[in-house]
Amino acid sequence: MKPKDAVTIELLLFVAASIVVLVVKSLRQSPVAEASAQPAGASSAPPMPSDGLVAYYFHSNTRCPTCQSIEAYAHEAIETGFADAMEDGRIQWQVLNYEKPENSGLARKYEIAMPMVVLVKREGGAETSWKSLDRVWELTGEKDEFVQYVQEETRSLLGYQ
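The structure assignment produced for this chain is given below.
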């Protein structure tokens, strides 16, 4: 390898490492307020629908811009595609931090290892099925496709045509 090539590679690695350090520092210095934050002792979630669906957005303690976009796009998809069902309580939107101890049971149950949207179908007061929407990460740069994906998966889980 030529000395010039080696220096170029070293400089690129230095720049990449510097960017990572800056991102980590900025995330630690400006924590994002949780969308689901409530006063101590307050109920964190409305009662579950007997028949319907709960759309969860699970996030971690650290919330990057991509994670925030996933939450916003998924919420928009549920709100715009299922406004009537949300209004009458058949569909609920919930945001939970999977790193908090009180949410660890759900995180294990739904196999959450990173920020994710999970749809949970309920019938007769019990959970009957659930689906993790893994493609949300892939579609964050394509908002219209993202919204369509979430809405199609929601309709499919509910048995809508």
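Interim note for the steering committee: Strands lie at 52-59, 91-97, 116-123, 126-132. The domain at 52-158 is CATH 3.40.30.10 (Glutaredoxin).
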